Prior knowledge:
Helix content is 56%, strand content 16%. The chain has helices at 2-10, 17-60, 105-113, 115-127, 131-135, 140-154, and strands at residues 74-83, 94-102, 162-170.
Amino acid sequence: MENETATIESNPTNESPKKADLFKKILIIGLPILIVQIVVVYFLVAKLIAPAVVSQKTETLPLETEHAPPVDLQMFVLKDLIINPASSGGAKFLLTTIGVEVPSTEVLREIQNKEIVVRDILNTVLGSKHLEELADMSKRDAIRKEISAEIAKILKLGKPTNVYFSKFIIQ
């Protein structure tokens, strides 16, 4: 009887030594096994599954279509042009950034060498438009074509393929 009370007093939580040993074994053996499993799953996903998913996505992308531009297109950008529209008396202005797309690097070099002339063309074309024309979205395409035609007149190695307005603010 004294032995039983001594055992109970030495283990006040009533946990048997077997349960404590089992918990230690789980920590010592189970935790490393869990970590190894996580690492294996990570490498399986990173090396096998993820590349397969990426390759499937790239295979489903459409190949070059009729509307896709040729690979060698270059962009000539004129930033923050300030232009006074016709009949505004200087009270209103247009702030715009224009990109001129050209078919090759040679044409890009040519247009870069003629930047002052291109700026003058843009000032002339856009400055001749009234506020109503500039604000009307349906007339933007005609303005693009007019700018493209005027720039094409000064280029010898090629002509612009498109004109873009990345900023078009009327104040």
